[in-house]
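Much of our argument rests on the idea that a fold can be written as discrete symbols. Part of our work consisted of pairing the sequence of a single chain with a tokenised description of its backbone. We regard such an encoding as a compact summary of how the chain folds. The amino acid sequence and the backbone structure tokens for this protein are reproduced below.
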Amino acid sequence: MIRTCLFDLGNVLLRFSHERMYEQIAALAAKSPLDVKRAIEATGLVNDFECGRTSQAEFQREIERQLNCSVDPESFARAVADIFEPDAALPPILDQLRRSGVRLVLLSNTNEIHFNWIQQEYDILDHFDDLVLSFRVGAMKPDAPIYEAALEAIRCEPSDCFYTDDILANVEAGRAFGLAAELFIGPDDLKQQLTSLGVDLT
């Protein structure tokens, strides 16, 4: 019996575009989007930022150093964060799950800038009973520590928890921890997956 649902955030609950981020930073720095992409990769700090080991200010400073520019911190944060689009089909499913008594937990690789923006601009996080976030846990999917944190948050046996993610490696890691994990393809497939596990979505 499914007692908890564990949801990924990016490209499940909210679509996002790295290309949009590159374009927005490029406009601030008077560089090309390709220059920005290369600069971000050259910092070597993306995973550290997602795991909370690098601060927002440190991340920005290193990108500025790579691009040889200086950007207002508020404008930089917006350029990095304003890359999401909601999927209107997902909130009704979350509401149906809550009405069925299912606990909802978010499991996301995310950073401080993105999380603060999502919390400010969208109400999607209001549906969740708990949030397991890489920058708070200090580890990213598909590494074991973030799944161990998720197992504490779900408050049920792993086999009683449905987990959906758009990245196969993350799904496979969830299965290794005993979760009923399925690849996210779209809202209709999600509803079929949940219904096949006996979840009432009426």
Observations:
- The longest strand covers residues 103-108.
- Residues 4-15+86-196 form a domain with the Rossmann fold fold (CATH 3.40.50.1000).
